[in-house]
Amino acid sequence: MSTIATLLVVVAATACGDSNADTSPDSTGTATLSPTPAPRDTEAATSALQGFVAAVEGDRIEDAWALYAASVPGTKSDHRLDRGCDFNVFSFEFPTMRNLFQEISPLEVVETFGSALGLSIVELRVVGANGSEYLVTLARAEPYTQDYQVMFLNRGSPAVVPGAPDPFPSPQYPQGYCGIWTGPR
Known about the structure:
By secondary structure, this protein is an alpha+beta fold. The protein has a domain at 42-154: Roll (Nuclear Transport Factor 2, Chain: A). It has four helices and six strands, in the order αααββαββββ. It has helices at residues 3-16, 42-57, 61-66, 87-104, and strands at 71-72, 75-79, 108-113, 121-127, 133-140, 148-154. The strands form two sheets. Strands 3-4-5-6 form a four-stranded antiparallel beta sheet. Strands 1-2 form a two-stranded antiparallel ribbon. Strand 3 and strand 4 form a beta hairpin. The N and C termini lie far apart (88 Å). The model is unreliable at 3-15 and 17-24 (pLDDT under 50).
């Protein structure tokens, strides 16, 4: 056999590979997929708000806590500080939240908004049975899989005097420690 023929046989054998050779993929050439945030779902956000209000009105504090953005599933001793108050403060505000929702329920969603903060935030403008308007912000704890939770509920209007705090609401209403109150945003 000639040298060129021998060389072609070696090249062909190398190119075809050995059936017993290691077939693991090259680790330097593989791309990893990152999950894409779920699209905004205003119906799911509205449902979460309705569930939160029903839990508060029904005096089911643990159910309401689970639908609150600062809650960590399965625990009352830990919370997401960037999303609201802890369970003890939530418990303190809970009776006043119940008073507020009993006065303004049912809530009608009149407008929905996305947010510049990302796909995991939905804002709802709602009108209470007494005609009062509120802005509700709902957030997903995990933008890829989790359901919406209530983060803020407020008048949605700016302060009466810019740079100065508005008067606190009556003690029968939430004072805003958990982001839920009758005052401005």
